[in-house]
Structures are given as structure tokens and as C-alpha cells.
Predict the 3D structure of the following.
Amino acid sequence: MKDSYKLLCITVLPLIAGMVILCVVVFSFNAQENNLRLVDVRKQQEHAIIEELRGRIETAYSTISYLESKGHSRQECLDIISSFRFGDGNYIWIHQIDESKPNSSLMLVHAVDDLVGKDLSGLVDLEQIDYINYNGITYPKDSVKVAHIKPTDIFWEFNHICLEQGAGVVEYYWPKIVNGKATDTGYLKMSYVKYFPKWNWVLGAGRMLIILTSWWR
């Protein structure tokens, strides 16, 4: 009986071990394939968002250029741009910079009323929120789960890109805006900015990124 049991073990255990190894290999392959798909989806999403944001800013930029060429005042331009909406509350902001002080950022137009008229130099994204939504899950910003997320000096990034390149993209964490007020949770956001040098204006538009944690989610 013991010999039969030993023989059974000798015969079956390698088969079981082989099946386990095969399952691990298949799972690993599927996980890698899913990750590659997610990377591809993320790239496609980012490309689509950048093109959408660029379209908004080019519309605003062209509007301002045209109005300025017709002799309209800066305030008239600001009033018109402040009325721009692109569905679901998406908006354009404008802040003014001083080229001798690259971090300066006097907000002229924004959906959050409390920000208009303020110099937002040194504004850091993580200081504006208590929670971070990462991969669809909300954590306290001091949680180890989001410890790898580093703070961003948002307006320094905007201004640096505009002064160096004329236009570009910045990613950071920002709260949703509800009825003109900011919530306490930050979501990954991508913003496109472009410089209007005649008036030292930075035109910006942003959108939240929806990050998938798995292919089937």
C-alpha cells in the first residue's frame, strides 16, 4: 500500500507541479499582455486629451489675437474667454506672468472665483488637497500607497514651459471644481498651456485623467 502511495506521488506530483508552473506562466503572460494593453490605452487617452486641450487653447488664442487686432481691450478679451465652456464645466484659465519673475502668476480668469485676482506663485498641488485619487482609489495624501507621488510647483511648471517652448503639457493633481469651489480630493490632471507674449498671458486648459488599473475594469 505504501509502495502504491509512493508510486502515485511520484507520478502525480510532477504533473501537479507542471500544471502549477503552467498556470503561473500563463498568468504572468496575461498580466504582461494586460499591462501592455493598459500602457497603449493610456498613451491613446493622453494623445486624445492633448489634442482636445490644444484645440480649446488654439480657439481661445485665435479669439484673443483677433480681438486684440481689432482694438478690443484686455478686459473685453478676459470677459469673453471667461464665458468659454467646453461641455461638463470644462473651462479655460488665464494668468499673467512677469518675464523677470518666472514664477509670478496673477490669475485673471478661472472657474474658481476665489482664485481670480490672486498671485498664485509657489502654489503646490498637494498642498491644496487632503486626499489623492490614485488608480481609481482615494487615499489620504500621507498614505504610503501614494508616497511616490511628488508635489508639483504648478505655476512654475506652466511658466517655464511657456517661456522656454511657447506651449506644452503639465501633469499634476488637482481637485474637482463643484459650483465654483474646489473639493478636497486631487485627481491626476493634464493641462495644456500656451503663451500670449504681447500681454504676458498664459492660456491654459486641463482635464482629469481616468486611469484604469486592469484591462477588464
